[in-house]
């Protein structure tokens, strides 16, 4: 069958690579894709949020399966449009994707279904938010309620940091509609685990775990980003930790969405803080994480197309995973997650099997920057230490005149 991937980032490149290796798949299309994906997918000039053009393309090109990668088209209802057109699509409707699209909805949903998470308050009033910070103290987590590409979150360790974040969101309109209100959350202590699952209704099939590195700079310093690197497996947590997270978080979430008349089909992602009291939800996403997809999918030995189709046909696919480890590092445009230049040549790109492009374009046969996170280089090896050594060995050859990357991905589990 032919597969259509909606989106054009690193996550979609990882999906394209995985589908391209499937004996069940003839041609992989990506809308719009990116310049670095052309070896694994046919990129088509269709906007990822243009439901009409996407459904028309799928119908005309005998697309047997469409997978929607990013969050924005999910919230725009692209899956709804495919369903209405009678086309097979893997992803949640806009109603189900609200679990990511609105942090206030997600928090209230977790309360209704007894899913463990931190305490919180939602407000659109700056003065009320400041009073809450004064009452609760710091550290405190401040989030723009809507989608902000991973940048609308501040972990404030001082009242001055909290005030600056609240001013950005509520007074200076830094995140537009996404910042019409804020969610102030309890600061949770522990270590993070990204746990994703294939979901169809109340059927939940968990993947292996991963850990992301959100801060821009080494030592977990600097502003939050969409993710600067990740690794899998996460040896800090064993099978019992994952089983508890599925039982207490992912399964109740799938059950609750179905119960509320917005059943979920797609990838349900739980960003978890593994506290002394067990796993607590930091955030839900309604799709593969990025960069987690780039380190989890290369470990999947099962056929991805078969897994998705079997699940949607009412089955419960059994997943098999490589015992090897994968570690990936993001190279980003200098200035990210703030302002940065576009159209800058990307040169001396290392040759690697697990090289995933994101914010990359092409001019006169040369890759150029087109976004904040430009590419992710990953390596697969018997151990995380070997994968880390291989990644950084190759990244030394990358021209970093206009790019930067963290040099310590995996530092919490890999000791010198």
UniProtKB/TrEMBL annotation:
Residues 107-313 form the ATP-grasp domain. SMART domains: GARS_A, GARS_C. The keyword Transcription does not apply. It is an enzyme of class 6 (ligase). Pfam families: GARS_A, GARS_C, GARS_N. GO terms for molecular function: ATP binding; metal ion binding; phosphoribosylamine-glycine ligase activity. GO terms for biological process: 'de novo' IMP biosynthetic process; purine nucleobase biosynthetic process. The keyword Ligase applies. It comes from the Bacteria. Keywords: ATP-binding, Ligase, Manganese, Metal-binding, Nucleotide-binding, Purine biosynthesis. It catalyses: 5-phospho-beta-D-ribosylamine + glycine + ATP = N(1)-(5-phospho-beta-D-ribosyl)glycinamide + ADP + phosphate + H(+). Pathway: Purine metabolism; IMP biosynthesis via de novo pathway; N(1)-(5-phospho-D-ribosyl)glycinamide from 5-phospho-alpha-D-ribose 1-diphosphate: step 2/2. Its cofactor is Mn(2+); Mg(2+). Its EC number is 6.3.4.13. PROSITE patterns: ATP_GRASP, GARS. Belongs to the GARS family. PANTHER family: PHOSPHORIBOSYLAMINE--GLYCINE LIGASE, PHOSPHORIBOSYLAMINE--GLYCINE LIGASE, CHLOROPLASTIC. This is Phosphoribosylamine--glycine ligase.
